[in-house]
Amino acid sequence: MLNKVPVQQLEFQLKKDKLFDFSGTIILQGICGVFGDSGAGKTSLVRALIGLDDDYSGNVSFAGEVWQGTNYFLKTEQRRVGMVFQEPRLFPHLDALGNLKIAKHKNSLYTIKQLAKALDFENLLNKKSIALSGGQKQRIAIARAILTAPKLLIMDEPLSSLDKHSRALLLPFIKQLAQQIPILYITHSMQELFYLATNMLLINNGSVEAIGEPLRLFLDPKLSLAKHAHSGLLLTVDSLTWDDQNAMLQGKVDGQAIYLAIANTRQEQSLQIKVESKDVIIATQPFMNSSLQNCLTTTIEQIEQISASHILLTLFLGEQRLQAKITIKSLHQLQLEVGQVVFSYVKAVSIIGELP
Amino acid sequence: MLVDTFSTQWLSELDLSAIYLTLKLAGLTTLILLIISPPLAWWLARSKRFFRPFVESLVALPLVLPPTVLGFYLLLSFSPDSYLGAFWLQMTGSGLAFSFSGLLIASIIYSLPFVVQPLQSAFVNLDKNYLEVASTLGFSRSKTFYKVVLPMTLPSFIIAGALGFAHTIGEFGVVLMIGGNIPGETQVLSIALFDHVETLQYEQAHILSFSLLAFSMVLLMFIYGVLQKRQKRLYDA
């Protein structure tokens, strides 16, 4: 039913004073996440890319069309990009329908009616925009951007301030939409990133630190990701079965059993969990008397110092990897070294599953 | 019939023609100002050029100067000896001084700040975010103006227009300097009133004065009504 969008390339070198120096080439197919800490320059990058800030020097081209070059600057309104800002920015003098009608382009893939149905705002169309809630406004703002028939859609943390209902509705929708329109999706949520993106731009300190597949970048100890609060990896849990007696979900990670305390509402055979590196406890011998349930046998693959007092261990499970953040004191006490087999106790996990 | 009785009893033919002339002058002045002021106000609100304060001061001058000073300079530039006056004479065959056209030009200059300033402050306060949305929606400049800027600043346009209109009706000094007192051509209401007082026609003066007072009051109430509504809207949003 859906045609894959042609692969398109976005190429840029953009510089502003000593603050920002972005450069990179991204293949845009589906969703490319733009990930980084707050203040790293994610929003600045996309604003410069689509021409909302014209005080950058350098060049930008998209799908063979030059957007910015030496003495050349194509105005934002001529770049045919859709933008969903962090806040909805609906025109206050128009009602919801007015906001959509004003944006509708004849080449739009969707009609207002289809979008109203897909994003569940059919009964809000005649409401003044000030009468809508934040989530309702943002759904309409997303529809408005799609109606302009953009060649590239940019979403700047569109879900960051939304209610659960809106998020649950929007995430699958955005994922599906990306099969028709390439999307650059700014987020600082690792769960959103892994749910949506097949490619990512890592922004750090005003420049592009890395471009690549999200999991690969998260596993790369040389990148800033490993040193930040979001260090922690995703694991796929398969062979799910429901343990009636203990009311827990049982599954396997690379063949090793794991128990998850979640409701049995799933039909799928597998799900994804995120294990924070601070939630992994390392032991050289199994604990006998403890409440810790999930113990995985792992091999130390890498030992890296990430601060004066802390070490990040990369632990190999067979196919997948875990990370554990321990103190240097523990490292010396346990005399850990690369290649050693250790028991990794997982204190807590968060479920990625279908939706963050 | 009623109007006839009223006019023959209360207002002389000359007074009526002065009222008509005043309304025509104020109407045309406002119309022209509403066309030229938005781009000027937009430029003043957004430009970062070094000579912007100079242009801004020039626009605001009529607020500060005694109208007679402005009138004096205008009179000089309207004379056939000056470039403007000579050019006008060549183009139209008639002089600018003591003519309705001259009065109109003078009124436009004199009332310019009253129209430009409310618009300028509205444009300064207009949230830049909405203009960014307009450009990401692919709007051209004119579409952005008509579909976003104008509806969002409409109360300021109404206030600007009403202020320009009211201010033109009330002008006296400039008209006296450059228009003189030619009935049907340059004798506006304020001049006609001055005439009545000078010739001790106090009853006529009363009638004209009171009409002007009542009219001004109604107009101001309208302006402040719009302002109040706008404030309420800002409060709601």
From TrEMBL, chain A:
<keyword id="KW-0067">ATP-binding</keyword>
<keyword id="KW-0500">Molybdenum</keyword>
<keyword id="KW-1278">Translocase</keyword>
<keyword id="KW-0813">Transport</keyword>
<dbReference type="GO" id="GO:0005524">
    <property type="term" value="F:ATP binding"/>
</dbReference>
<dbReference type="InterPro" id="IPR017871">
    <property type="entry name" value="ABC_transporter-like_CS"/>
</dbReference>
<keyword id="KW-0472">Membrane</keyword>
<dbReference type="InterPro" id="IPR005116">
    <property type="entry name" value="Transp-assoc_OB_typ1"/>
</dbReference>
<feature type="domain" description="Mop">
    <location>
        <begin position="289"/>
        <end position="355"/>
    </location>
</feature>
<dbReference type="InterPro" id="IPR027417">
    <property type="entry name" value="P-loop_NTPase"/>
</dbReference>
<keyword id="KW-0547">Nucleotide-binding</keyword>
<dbReference type="InterPro" id="IPR050334">
    <property type="entry name" value="Molybdenum_import_ModC"/>
</dbReference>
<dbReference type="InterPro" id="IPR008995">
    <property type="entry name" value="Mo/tungstate-bd_C_term_dom"/>
</dbReference>
<protein>
    <submittedName>
        <fullName>Molybdenum import ATP-binding protein ModC</fullName>
    </submittedName>
</protein>
<dbReference type="InterPro" id="IPR003593">
    <property type="entry name" value="AAA+_ATPase"/>
</dbReference>
<dbReference type="InterPro" id="IPR003439">
    <property type="entry name" value="ABC_transporter-like_ATP-bd"/>
</dbReference>
<keyword id="KW-1003">Cell membrane</keyword>
<feature type="domain" description="ABC transporter">
    <location>
        <begin position="2"/>
        <end position="230"/>
    </location>
</feature>
<dbReference type="Pfam" id="PF00005">
    <property type="entry name" value="ABC_tran"/>
</dbReference>
<dbReference type="InterPro" id="IPR004606">
    <property type="entry name" value="Mop_domain"/>
</dbReference>
<dbReference type="Pfam" id="PF03459">
    <property type="entry name" value="TOBE"/>
</dbReference>
UniProtKB/TrEMBL annotation, chain B:
<keyword id="KW-0812">Transmembrane</keyword>
<keyword id="KW-1133">Transmembrane helix</keyword>
<feature type="domain" description="ABC transmembrane type-1">
    <location>
        <begin position="19"/>
        <end position="225"/>
    </location>
</feature>
<keyword id="KW-1003">Cell membrane</keyword>
<feature type="transmembrane region" description="Helical">
    <location>
        <begin position="96"/>
        <end position="116"/>
    </location>
</feature>
<feature type="transmembrane region" description="Helical">
    <location>
        <begin position="207"/>
        <end position="227"/>
    </location>
</feature>
<dbReference type="InterPro" id="IPR000515">
    <property type="entry name" value="MetI-like"/>
</dbReference>
<keyword id="KW-0813">Transport</keyword>
<comment type="function">
    <text>Part of the binding-protein-dependent transport system for molybdenum; probably responsible for the translocation of the substrate across the membrane.</text>
</comment>
<keyword id="KW-0472">Membrane</keyword>
<feature type="transmembrane region" description="Helical">
    <location>
        <begin position="20"/>
        <end position="45"/>
    </location>
</feature>
<feature type="transmembrane region" description="Helical">
    <location>
        <begin position="57"/>
        <end position="76"/>
    </location>
</feature>
<dbReference type="Pfam" id="PF00528">
    <property type="entry name" value="BPD_transp_1"/>
</dbReference>
<dbReference type="InterPro" id="IPR011867">
    <property type="entry name" value="ModB_ABC"/>
</dbReference>
<protein>
    <recommendedName>
        <fullName>Molybdenum transport system permease</fullName>
    </recommendedName>
</protein>
<dbReference type="InterPro" id="IPR035906">
    <property type="entry name" value="MetI-like_sf"/>
</dbReference>
<feature type="transmembrane region" description="Helical">
    <location>
        <begin position="148"/>
        <end position="169"/>
    </location>
</feature>
<comment type="similarity">
    <text>Belongs to the binding-protein-dependent transport system permease family. CysTW subfamily.</text>
</comment>
<keyword id="KW-0500">Molybdenum</keyword>
<keyword id="KW-0997">Cell inner membrane</keyword>
